[in-house]
Amino acid sequence: MEKEGVKSAFVRRHYESLGYRVHSGLQFGCDFVLYADSPEAVHSDFCVYIIGNDGFIDWREIQTLTRSMPDFHKTLIVVQVKGEYIKELAMGTEHAPFRNRPVPKAVGSQVKPHKKAKLEEKQSK
């Protein structure tokens, strides 16, 4: 399996099956970003980086990604595909704490300001 083809599609389906909305992570130097709700309503919490077929990641690459995530307020998830299984390693910092996929009403401060009022209105009904 090559990273850009089958492996990438497999990882995308995995996160979609968990209820995330999966989008390109190119702007953050990763393969994907994961949204708990519509990207118009919330910011993404996670960046996903897929390790290549050899299972090796250069320490400089992981250091660069790890140091970048607090600035983006994201948690880095490093993924390795082994056959039909996915191994995940999540790396959080105090600026981007690891959070489980929240339900929309629990998104809190991650809700984009112009959408927050609409979400609060829906929740009160």
From TrEMBL:
<dbReference type="InterPro" id="IPR006676">
    <property type="entry name" value="tRNA_splic"/>
</dbReference>
<protein>
    <submittedName>
        <fullName>tRNA intron endonuclease</fullName>
    </submittedName>
</protein>
<dbReference type="GO" id="GO:0000214">
    <property type="term" value="C:tRNA-intron endonuclease complex"/>
</dbReference>
<dbReference type="InterPro" id="IPR006677">
    <property type="entry name" value="tRNA_intron_Endonuc_cat-like"/>
</dbReference>
<dbReference type="GO" id="GO:0005737">
    <property type="term" value="C:cytoplasm"/>
</dbReference>
<dbReference type="Pfam" id="PF01974">
    <property type="entry name" value="tRNA_int_endo"/>
</dbReference>
<keyword id="KW-0378">Hydrolase</keyword>
<dbReference type="GO" id="GO:0000213">
    <property type="term" value="F:tRNA-intron lyase activity"/>
</dbReference>
<keyword id="KW-0255">Endonuclease</keyword>
<feature type="domain" description="tRNA intron endonuclease catalytic">
    <location>
        <begin position="11"/>
        <end position="83"/>
    </location>
</feature>
<dbReference type="GO" id="GO:0000379">
    <property type="term" value="P:tRNA-type intron splice site recognition and cleavage"/>
</dbReference>
<keyword id="KW-0540">Nuclease</keyword>
<feature type="region of interest" description="Disordered">
    <location>
        <begin position="97"/>
        <end position="125"/>
    </location>
</feature>
